[in-house]
Write a structure and sequence with these properties.
Elements lengths: L1 H23 L6 H12 L4 H20 L7 H19 L8 H22 L8 H13 L3 H18 L6 H29 L2
InterPro entries: YczE/YyaS-like (IPR038750)
Keywords: Membrane, Transmembrane, Transmembrane helix
Protein name: Permease
């Protein structure tokens, strides 16, 4: 159980750091992160707050799609990611700026790797998934969509809203959209083996 909690907590903390680095890189954040930044700029509240608010809305959307009860246990995942994003953005990296292309690229790549590694860690725990990930699964199960098609639909939806709200969309957004899945898959094998080995101790 300790291994599950450790992988889950560390994974979500790393996801928060990765998200902040991709935003700070200023080359275009992931679609959902760009949406949260756009909401923060347009309406107010912190980016982490919008991670939680949008996630809560998606909990009900997922329930509606699946004709099931809302999965409120996912709130635990939401709050940890939201607090992690705000922690890194407000208290740790607040005064850090990447003003030239080299550091911007390094921040973007580092952020993508941290998000992918964090996702591979937290998914080992079998605790409730992020409602964004659950939305893809809900569309897949309800309408028998291919997972890639379902993922593309959810990303395009977030991208459209982010565009309307002047969120940070750029080349980085495209890179994240197409590379994050394969990189998660790359990390998942070694992380799963490590998780299994530690769980047996």
């Amino acid at each position: 159980m300790k291994t599950k909690i450790s992988f889950y907590t560390i994974g979500l903390i790393l996801i928060g750091l990765g998200v902040v680095l991709t935003i700070k890189a200023d080359l275009g954040a992931g679609a959902w992160d760009a949406l949260n930044v756009g909401l923060s700029i347009t309406i107010g509240f912190t980016v982490g707050s919008w991670v939680i608010i949008v996630g809560i809305i998606l909990i009900f959307v997922n329930a509606l799609i699946q004709h099931a009860k809302p999965k409120f246990l996912a709130l635990m995942t939401l709050f940890l990611i939201g607090f992690s994003v705000d922690f890194w953005m407000i208290f740790v990296l607040r005064n850090i700026e990447f003003n030239t292309l080299g550091p911007q690229i390094l921040a973007l790549v580092g952020g993508i790797l941290l998000i992918a590694f964090g996702v591979s860690l937290y998914l080992q725990s079998t605790f409730p998934a992020n409602p964004i990930d659950q939305l893809m699964l809900s569309l897949h199960e309800r309408f028998h969509m291919n997972l890639m098609v379902a993922k593309t639909i959810t990303e395009l939806f977030a991208l459209l809203l982010a565009f309307l709200l002047s969120g940070p969309i750029g080349v980085g957004t495209i890179i994240i959209t197409f590379l994050i899945g394969p990189i998660i898959q790359l990390f998942n094998g070694p992380v799963s083996k490590r998780f299994e080995a530690l769980s047996k101790k």
